[in-house]
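We emphasize that the prediction below concerns an isolated chain of 156 residues; any contacts that depend on oligomerization or on bound cofactors are therefore not represented. The input was used exactly as deposited, without trimming of termini.
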Amino acid sequence: KRMKKGFTLVELLVVIAVIAVLAAVTVVAVNPAKKLAQARDAARKSAIQQIVTSLSTFYTQNTSYPAASADLVTNGELKNLPKGPTGADFSYVVNPSACTTAGKNCTGAAIYDTYEQPTTACATGTAYWGWTSGSGVIGKICTAGTPAYSDVPVVD
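Result of the prediction step, given as a token string:
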């Protein structure tokens, strides 16, 4: 009898099935969607920290916050305004809402963006990552509406 070298079709199918099962288990264990959201949150935190540092410097020099975050670039505090991980500007609100940078009458400010993967979920409302001048703290903000300068972020 002559012996043939190689694998049978059944052996090849078994090996392919085992590899497919291992690949599926690996994808489920790694959870790429969660990892991507965590990466976007890390980028969001870093960019907001950079803006907050500039806002603090601006306030120290002017005893007022800028009426628009873009004024940080106009006044030389930032070379470029950092954007969120989606490429959009961060939400920025001031108090009073009708204040102007030139008038130096913006007494409060908040900058924030949606927080995708908070360590602990909000009991009510939406999770945002941001900073408020009322607290001077950067962290998670849970609110049913939009964050305001008087909200107090919590460590997450």
